[in-house]
Every structure is written in structure tokens, then in C-alpha cells.
């Protein structure tokens, strides 16, 4: 997505239904945006499940290369993270992906690269990503299928009208966060062992997730820390300020 919105730091109040995460989470969460995709190459918005899961809407060759390069750096981070734990506090590594082809293919590359690292491979729960519909692309309503310069129209409405705005019949930031929130809380409960969880998805979905990790931040400010293709970040739930970014990796475009 083109990074054309630079909203002011003075943001609207967070919507009361944008529930905060617990300040202490059992798991460590990493978010990673998919690599350069065929919809990116065509300059078209592809945000419906029906179209998004189709193989023709997966990664380009450049996107695959980006994903391999970024996954290699991610594997180094994961190895260092695991090596810093004592045996009594060992963790699993879990990769969870949006069902959209461009995210799923990125997540498969992540799993492939992690499995090639001897330290990480011992903690990797599965060599295939888990698929979670909660990580699907934000639906852009009337803008779906149009030129990707139309993203900015929805982003402007986010800033003007806040978390719950649904101009152009787009999915609101609030609805995106509510589904991601359900996923995170489910992972907190269902994963028996403390884990490093890698969430592979889309720009808006993960940027809204970032703002969701900060209970004091309006979700509509998600463009303040935009993610480029194949970039990953480590997030920490923070009830008082913007999410702590422990490590940030950008692809070389």
C-alpha cells in the first residue's frame, strides 16, 4: 500500500469497544506483512476473501525474494530470543497466517526458513502456518478492485471520523481490531506453552493490530507506523503509550 497518509499525533479518543489487551501477555507477538504481491504489481485493491485466496493473487517473484530475505533476519532474531531463555522457560514458535494467498505464501516461506535453523527448528510447532481468518485483509468495500490510490480515501476518513467509520462501506478499524483481539485472546488461552507467535497478514490489519496493542491510542492512527512489504516487528502490550517495537526490519526496495 502506498504510504501517503501522515496523520497528526493528536488523535481521536479510542473507541470504547476497542478493548485493551492485558498488560502482561503469556506469549511474544511478532507481526509480519506479506511480500510484494500480484495485486500490488497490478496496482489494484484486493480485499475480499473470494479473490484474496486465489493463487493468481499471491506473491510476485520480487515478493518471494523479499520474504526470504526478511525471514532470514527474523530467524536470527528468533534464535537469539530462544537462546536467551533458560531451559525451564523454553518457548514454542508458532506461525499464524491470513488465508489470503499473498500472506499464506509469505508465511510458508517464514516456516521454511525457520525450519532450516537448527535452534529454531526444535521449537517450531509445525512446518506449515496455521490459518486464521481473523488475520484477513481489511475489506475496503466500494474501493475493492479499484486502483490502489483509492486506499488514501479510506485512510482520510479514518482520521476524520475515528475508529468505527465505515465510509465507502469499508470495514472499520474497530471491526478489524475486534477480530484480531479475539484471535490474540484465543492464542493466549489455547497455546498451553509460552510461545513466540508470528502473525503474517496485511498492512492495515497489522497496523491496526499495532495500535490495538496500545490501549491509549486511537485505532484510526494506524498509519503512523506503517509497514512496508515483508517488514516484521515485535510488539509488546503497553497500556500507557505506543506499542514498543523491539526490532524492526524493512525490506530493501
Automatic annotation (TrEMBL):
CDD domains: HP
Signal peptide: none
Domain of life per record: Eukaryota
Any single Pfam family the record assigns to this protein: His_Phos_1
PANTHER family membership: PHOSPHOGLYCERATE MUTASE FAMILY PROTEIN
Protein name per the record: Uncharacterized protein
Native source species: Bodo saltans (Flagellated protozoan)
Amino acid at each position: 500500500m502506498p504510504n501517503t497518509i501522515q496523520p497528526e499525533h493528536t488523535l481521536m479518543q479510542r473507541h470504547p469497544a476497542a478493548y485493551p489487551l492485558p498488560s502482561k501477555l503469556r506469549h511474544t507477538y511478532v507481526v509480519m506483512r506479506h511480500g510484494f504481491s500480484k495485486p500490488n504489481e497490478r496496482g489494484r485493491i484486493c480485499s475480499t476473501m473470494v479473490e484474496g485466496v486465489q493463487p493468481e493473487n499471491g506473491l510476485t517473484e520480487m515478493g518471494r525474494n523479499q520474504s526470504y530475505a526478511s525471514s532470514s533476519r527474523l530467524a536470527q532474531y528468533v534464535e537469539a530470543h530462544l537462546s536467551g531463555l533458560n531451559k525451564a522457560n523454553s518457548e514454542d514458535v508458532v506461525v499464524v497466517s491470513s488465508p489470503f494467498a499473498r500472506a499464506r505464501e509469505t508465511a510458508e516461506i517464514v516456516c521454511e526458513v525457520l525450519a532450516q535453523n537448527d535452534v529454531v527448528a526444535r521449537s517450531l510447532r509445525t512446518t506449515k502456518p496455521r490459518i486464521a481468518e481473523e488475520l484477513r485483509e481489511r475489506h475496503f468495500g466500494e474501493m475493492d478492485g479499484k486502483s490502489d490510490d483509492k486506499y488514501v480515501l479510506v485512510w482520510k476518513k479514518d482520521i476524520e471520523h475515528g475508529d468505527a467509520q465505515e465510509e465507502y462501506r469499508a470495514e472499520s478499524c474497530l471491526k478489524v481490531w475486534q477480530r484480531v483481539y479475539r484471535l490474540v485472546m484465543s492464542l493466549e488461552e489455547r497455546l498451553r506453552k509460552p510461545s513466540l507467535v508470528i502473525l503474517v497478514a496485511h498492512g492495515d490489519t497489522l497496523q491496526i493490530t499495532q495500535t490495538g496493542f496500545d490501549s491509549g491510542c486511537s485505532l484510526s492512527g494506524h498509519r503512523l507506523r506503517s509497514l512496508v512489504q515483508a517488514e516484521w516487528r515485535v510488539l509488546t502490550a503497553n497500556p500507557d503509550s505506543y506499542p514498543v517495537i523491539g526490532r524492526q526490519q524493512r525490506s530493501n526496495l
